[in-house]
Amino acid sequence: MTSRAAIARIVIGFMLLILVYVAPWFVGYVSAGSRMAVRCPGQEAAPVDVVVSLNFRPGPTELEALQKYGRYGGGGGQPTNVILLRTTPDNRDRLSKLYWIKSVAPLEPCA
Prior knowledge:
Keywords: Membrane, Transmembrane, Transmembrane helix
Strand order of the largest sheet: 2-3-1-4
Distance between the termini: 69 Å
Transmembrane segments: 6-27
Shape: elongated
Helix content: 40-55%
Structural class: alpha+beta
Order of helices and strands: HHEHEEHE
CATH superfamily of the domain at 31-106: Peptidase S8 propeptide/proteinase inhibitor I9
Number of helices: 4
CATH architecture of the domain at 31-106: 2-Layer Sandwich
CATH class of the domain at 31-106: Alpha Beta
């Protein structure tokens, strides 16, 4: 094997590692708008309680990761939902960018 082929393999390996790291972030960023429910008037700046829906039953790792965005408030009777209390607007935007989240909606429906 020549040194040129060895360098090409190393570069390709690094590119694949970068792709594996960046792809979930990119997918979450591009599809964030489809995950976020319509915001009710008056909820744009205030912390509100939200329901985070997942495609799977959350385990301890997912619950711990979600607690960065708001205080855990239970599941609301659904095994794939997580209620987060007092979630700020910035944290709601960050939640919608996580690729493994199905949707983020306010706990209380709009009046």
